[in-house]
Amino acid sequence: xxxxRTVIGVDIGGTKIAAALxxxxxxxxxxxxxxxxxxxxxxxxxxxxTDAGSTQACLDGMVACIADLAHGSGRVEGIGVGVAxxxxxxxxxxxxxxxxxxxxxxxxxxxxxxxxVPVVIDNDATAxxxxxHAFGAGVGAREMLMLTLGTGVGGGIxxxxxxxxxxxxxxxxxxxxxxxxxxxxxxANCPNHGCLEAYVAGPAMAAAAAAAAAAQPDSGLGRALxxxxxxxxxxxxxxxxxxxxxxxxxxxxxxxxxxxxxxxLVNIFNPEVIVIGGGAAAAGELLLGPxxxxxxxxxxxxxxxxxxxVPAALGPDAGFIGAAALVLSELLPDDVCASS
Length: 340
Known about the structure:
alpha/beta; about 40% helix; disordered C terminus
């Protein structure tokens, strides 16, 4: 059995930095059925608001989190970072970002010099996918996709049991598959119209909720608007889970857009499982049920009948657990038994 390792995982988003000191055993696979895997033990954790005022301020916040976790922890064997940016994985370099002041930043080298341990850097959605594959909803799958529904829509690809990053590390921008060429302008740094992100990310959900509130003043959403409450994705989800018919209908429509995206992804990748995570996915089956319905109606056989569409298992900790899993698989691989 692989020995336990002490690592730090960091998840850097546009609004917050979540970091944790974890004790984890590298994922193992035995011949035959996949082995049940122990979720890493969280020894300490910090969450701070991201200071997006400047590159240095953002980096300083990140370094402070890591330093606080490392202090008095004994020997940290590696640091993993998932960042909401385009990443050159091989170089450990942040290429560009939409919501962060991080462009052309050699982050891996900066952190290795500062802390004196191996560091691995990857896109945050890829890191979350690695975490779900190692310890969450994707355990045992050889072919897996992940969509993270948050401020944007991130994607991760597991191919033959390993992360797929493409030629230059820019693969898995799954939120930018096009649902409607005449659709709304993509809200991210993207030249397209009608991207999946424009329909199912948190801001798109908020816009759909606001439109429904204005159109139906007697609905739960409409009453919330009249009372001065923020009509956003959180309110939409809460009302939907409470059974409000108007909110349920909005979520179903958004789920159908999600399903249209899944049709394309399933037809291209033929995955065993698609994991749906991120804060905007908190509505669960109110989104996933309609999405599966569209996939079943419009997907190609046999892929549509084979794939499982499931909620993420690691919740809000998926980012830093995924970053820690990157350390275990990329920097400390000797203990890892590859799946056959």
